[in-house]
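Workshop exercise sheet. Pairs work together: one partner reads the sequence aloud, the other fills in the structure field after running the prediction. Swap roles for the next sheet.
Pair: D.N. / O.F.
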Amino acid sequence: MLEPQIVRLSNLIDQDVCNLAQGLNNFVGVPGTVPTTLSTYLAAKVKLDKMACPMDSNRYAFLEPEADATLMDNLKGLLNPGKEIGAQYESGSMTKSGTIGLKWRMDQNIYSQTVGTLGGTPTTNGVPTSGASSVVTQSWSSTTLNAGDVISFISTSTPVNGVNPQSFQSTGQPMQFVVTATVSDTAGAITIPIAPAIYGPGSNLQNVTALPASGTAIYVYNTPAASFASISAKQSYQNIVAHKNFGTIAMVDMPLPGGTDKAYRARSKKAGKSIRVIRDFVSTTDLWIQRLDVLYGTAVLRQELGCRVGG
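Structure field:
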C-alpha cells in the first residue's frame, strides 16, 4: 500500500512549508512563552491589517499543538456561535473555527526558532543607505544572532516605524526585520544582514518612516537590551498568522521513464501538486517495488502578508 509512504512524503513537505516562518519579519508574542489569549493573535492580525493584507477569507492561523490546546482551554468560557463552539468541543481544537477573521489549523510541524545568545546594549553604527540589505551595529557583547531572529530600531526622537505599502502612511509600529544569516562577534561590532531591505522616504519601495540614525537602540523580538537575558537562547515555536499568498510551494512534473511495469503521475492541476509513481519487478529478489518522487521548492513571496506568533 502506498498510503503510509504518501503520509510520510506529505509530512516532509509540510515541514518545509512551516519552515517558511523563518523568513517572516513580522513578529508578536514572547519567545519561549505559549500565547494564552486571543489578544496575541489579534496583535498579529493588526500587523496584517496595517500592511494592507487583503481582508478576505484567505487568512489563516497555524498553531503548534500546545498553543492550540492552551488557547482552546482559555477560550472555553467565552460566548460563541453554537455551531462554532460545537465544532471546537467535538474536535478539541481551534481547527474547526473561523474566529477573528482567521481560519485556524493545528500543525505538528510548526517551525521552532532558537533565539541567539544576546548581550550588550547594541545600537546602530552610522546611518544605513536606503535600499541596504545589511545594517552596521555596535556595542554588543559576545553575541550571536541566528538566522530567523527579528530586530527593530527604536528611537523616541526619530521613530523607525513601518509604513503601509499602498499609502506609505506610518503604521505607528516599529518596523521589524528578519536576520537572514547567522552572525556573531565577541568584540561588539556586527554587520547584520536583514530582510526586507530598508527603504527610507522618497523611495518607491519605502517601508520605514525614517532611516535609523546612528546610535539608535536595537531591540530583538521587541525586547530591549536590559531584558535580553529573558529571551537569550530561548527555543520558541513560530506559529503563523498569514494570508495564503504570503508564500508558495511549486512542484515540477518529473519525467516518466520507459521500460517499467508502470510509470505515472498522481497530480492535481488545481492544487499544482505532482507526484511521480514508478512500479517495477525485480527478478533477482522476486519483489514488486514502488517508488514515489517529488521535485518542489518553497519560498516566501510577500513578507508583509505573514506574521509569526512566538510560542
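Discussion prompt: The CA atoms of residues 31 and 226 lie 16 Å apart. What would you look at next?
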